[in-house]
Write a structure and sequence with these properties.
Elements (H helix, E strand, L loop, with lengths): L2 E6 L5 H12 L3 E2 L1 H5 E3 L3 E2 L3 H9 L4 E3 L8 H7 L2 E5 L3 H18 L20 H21 L7 E5 L2 H8 L10
Parallel strand pairs: 1-5, 1-6, 2-5, 6-7
Antiparallel strand pairs: 3-4
Helix pairs in contact: 5-6
Length: 179
């Protein structure tokens, strides 16, 4: 486990897991959203592909992402391990709602100095909406990729609950999990 993607739907805890793995394995952590959104008004970095390609060429890294569309295949072909946080909607939705509510009320600055606003809650791009509407499609896409020969031989760790993830992170790893 040297090149790790932590995949899952918005609100699953990808960043938290990736940071914990980074600390435990002493591997560099890269927050995908910080690379994607590097300016005001949620502007996408025009040099995203080049930045991610440079990181992906390194011998070791951890990304907290299934991959932004522009760099998804690059990351999946470069990774040796995918940690799939495949939690039920009943787990991820309260998490993403609490996080977005906190960010909105406290005006927390996130990627590129941006903030989640009350009006952004009514946009299809808002994390809560995207988590809800993309839930099944994201699960299906990650499942497809974990069995796609293009991305073999990936070590896939499929974690289906926060309890299972905590136990795995606490010592029952590294081990491949059955799809």
């Amino acid at each position: 486990m040297q090149r790790i993607l932590v995949a899952g739907i918005t609100g699953a805890g990808k960043t938290t897991m990736a940071q914990a793995l980074s600390a435990r394995l002493r591997l560099p952590f890269h927050e995908m959203d910080s690379l994607v959104f590097n300016g005001p008004d949620w502007a996408v970095d025009p040099d995203l592909h080049q930045q991610v390609a440079k990181i992906a060429a390194a011998p070791a890294w951890i990304f907290d992402s299934f991959g932004h569309p522009e760099v998804r295949d690059l990351l999946w072909t470069s990774a040796d391990t995918v940690i799939w946080l495949d939690y039920p909607r009943a787990v991820v939705m309260p998490r993403v709602l609490r996080r977005s509510l906190r960010r909105t009320l406290l005006r927390e600055r996130v990627f590129g100095g941006n903030v989640e606003t009350l009006s952004s809650w009514f946009s299809g791009d808002h994390p809560a909406w995207s988590s809800w509407t993309q839930y099944e499609a994201r699960r299906a896409e990650i499942n497809r990729r974990t069995t796609d020969p293009r991305f073999a031989p990936l070590n896939v760790v499929h974690l289906r609950s926060p309890r299972e993830a905590t136990a795995w992170l606490g010592g029952a790893w590294p081990r491949p999990a059955a799809g």
